[in-house]
Design a protein that fits this description.
GO terms for molecular function: heme binding; iron ion binding; monooxygenase activity; oxidoreductase activity, acting on paired donors, with incorporation or reduction of molecular oxygen. Keywords: Iron, Metal-binding. Belongs to the cytochrome P450 family. InterPro entries: Cyt_P450_sf (IPR036396). This protein is mainly alpha-helical. It folds into two domains: 11-76, no CATH class; 78-157. The protein contains seven helices and two strands. It has helices at 19-29, 50-56, 63-66, 71-76, 78-106, 116-126, 135-157, and strands spanning 34-39, 42-47. A two-stranded antiparallel ribbon has the order 1-2.
Amino acid sequence: GPWRLPVIGSIHHLIGALPHHAMRDLARRYDAPLMLLRLGELNVVVASSAIASREILASGFSLADLFPSSRLARAFSSSIRRMEALNNQISQLIGRIIEEHRMRRSAGGGDEEEDIVDVLLRIQNDGSLHMPLNARTIGSVIMHMFHVVLAHMICFQEGAKPRLQHSNG
């Protein structure tokens, strides 16, 4: 790929043109079907075909994308701040759900069918695991399950086959 400068890597090759145009021109200049560019702290693989480019290229770069270890860059990145705020809201929501289940269980509301939160709280209370099951772990399990369900919903909407296969046995 093209030559690099210390700290900024290959970013200087992108100045003055749209990033995807500059990368296309670099790929043509070096006759490279794939190039490795260093953009700040990130290594970026650039494909010169239209199909591969759509798969690899993002719609642009923020400072936090280019310098992920920089607290200053993250502070200026609104997408990172929005994502962190959303993550905090989701964590608080899951915490409230867990607490509501705990309160219902302690009040003797066990007549209803157990859901996953009830099962995890029961396992936490009986201490049958080899390691402690704390509220953070329960929240992580719930969040992971949410992501799996969301991914399946997206796959079905796009007409793709789900990756998980269910066995009959």
